[in-house]
């Protein structure tokens, strides 16, 4: 956090604050909160008797120089924290939509009520597959071949490749500490968006144009923003790098050819 951030964050807390939602590693920025930053949040939760809903679905996708810490392990936080995990993100099967929430009984019992009356259940084969996957790797957590250790090493290579590619054509990517997305300012590419709808933010028009004309897909970052802040982020798009090398090869050809055309 920057110098003034703790004060700004505390200004949002008061006696009516019920909960704070934390996301680390963060989507879409890829930020991994460090111990000092988490301590600030922890202290505020305790001071204002606030719950913490901690979205940690990318917990195993953390790169060199960073370490994922669970805020629930901080003193005084277990009893006020629900930690959310994801099989889809952890095992790269996002279509499964299978995950978990961990916390004290007095909080989890209410989630069980919600689960019972909304989703009700998950597909049994998927639950069995997840159990088997955990059972295999939990026995070899210190082994480099353990999936939880090999996955971030594999993705870090892809991340660095995407960073080099974007930088080589003059873009300025925000290098993520974790997750599998990279945000970049794409205004330098400056395509002709006259055939796109004028009432949409720039990044929406950009990604639609890029998908249609360049066969390259991305996500507009302003989709993550409220109406007041969309204009601050509409020159940024989110690229995904958890792809086969053949897909990254194709993306590289498209972006480099695009850059040559612009110059």
Question: What is the string of helix and strand elements?
Answer: HEHEEHEHHHEEHEHEH
CATH class division of the largest domain: Alpha Beta
Gyration radius over CA? 21 Å
Count of domains: 2
Structural class by helix and strand composition: alpha/beta
In percent, how much strand structure appears in the residues? Answer: 5-15%
Unreliable sequence segments = none
- DSSP E strands, number: 8
Question: How many helices?
Answer: 9
User: Portion of residues in helices?
Assistant: 40-55%
Pathway: Amino-acid degradation; L-kynurenine degradation; kynurenate from L-kynurenine: step 1/2
GO molecular function, one term: cysteine-S-conjugate beta-lyase activity
Domain Aminotransferase class I/classII large: 5-250
Family: Belongs to the class-I pyridoxal-phosphate-dependent aminotransferase family.
What would you say this structure looks like, in words?
This protein is 41% helix and 13% strand. The chain contains 9 helices and 8 strands. The protein has helices spanning 5-10, 35-47, 87-90, 105-117, 124-137, 147-168, 202-214, 230-233, 245-262, and strands spanning 19-23, 51-55, 81-86, 99-102, 172-174, 181-185, 219-220, 236-240. A 4-stranded mixed β-sheet has the order 1-2-3-4. A 4-stranded antiparallel β-sheet has the order 5-6-8-7, covered by helices on one side. This is Kynurenine--oxoglutarate transaminase 3. Residues 5-250 form the Aminotransferase class I/classII large domain. One of its GO terms (molecular function) is pyridoxal phosphate binding.
